[in-house]
Every structure is written in structure tokens, then in C-alpha cells.
From TrEMBL:
<dbReference type="GO" id="GO:0005737">
    <property type="term" value="C:cytoplasm"/>
</dbReference>
<dbReference type="InterPro" id="IPR012677">
    <property type="entry name" value="Nucleotide-bd_a/b_plait_sf"/>
</dbReference>
<protein>
    <submittedName>
        <fullName>NMI protein</fullName>
    </submittedName>
</protein>
<dbReference type="Pfam" id="PF07292">
    <property type="entry name" value="NID"/>
</dbReference>
<feature type="domain" description="NID">
    <location>
        <begin position="2"/>
        <end position="73"/>
    </location>
</feature>
<dbReference type="InterPro" id="IPR009909">
    <property type="entry name" value="Nmi/IFP35_dom"/>
</dbReference>
Length: 92
């Protein structure tokens, strides 16, 4: 259907259309763990915005059982060096 979305105080009329999602990305990360931070290296080069990559990294390490993480305080991502630093609210 049709929707009106407020973007930066401007109204944009949008229409919802179904689409097929492409196959997800699967990749391997190399990490170094400390008490409160995880250094991630060899982050794959994906054609997505840096903000999306930060979100993906945060979600991966927020999943306590699957990623061995916890509540994330900050994610610093450097696309050029393909590295990231995940900082948690609590050491563990």
C-alpha cells in the first residue's frame, strides 16, 4: 500500500512492494578478546554502508549465547583496515 514517511521534516510518499531477498552473507571473523573489548580483524569487504556493518557487528556480539558477548556500548569500524573494536558495557 501507500504510506507517507517523515524524513528530516519532509514528507515522502512511498509505496510498499514485495521483493526477494538475496542469499545472506556468511563470513569468518578473527578476534582478540580482553575484559571489556573485542578487537575484530579481517572484516569482509561488503558493498553495504559502514553504518550497516556496525549494526551487523553489534547484533552479532550482543547475542550473549551465540556471540559470547553482552550489551554493547560502542562499535568502532574502520573499513580501510577491515577492523572493528566492540566495547561492552560490562567486562566479561
Amino acid at each position: 500500500g501507500k504510506h507517507a514517511v517523515n524524513l528530516d521534516n519532509k514528507i515522502a510518499d512511498v509505496r510498499v512492494k514485495p521483493f526477494t531477498l538475496e542469499m545472506g552473507f556468511k563470513f569468518e571473523l578473527h578476534i582478540t578478546i580482553s575484559g571489556k573489548k573485542i578487537n575484530v580483524s579481517e572484516v569482509p569487504e561488503l558493498s553495504i554502508p559502514d553504518e550497516w556493518m556496525r549494526d551487523k557487528l553489534e547484533l552479532n556480539f550482543y547475542k550473549t549465547k551465540q556471540g559470547g558477548g553482552g550489551e554493547v556500548e560502542n562499535v568502532t569500524y574502520d573499513k580501510q583496515s577491515r577492523t572493528a573494536v566492540i566495547t561492552f558495557l560490562k567486562p566479561g
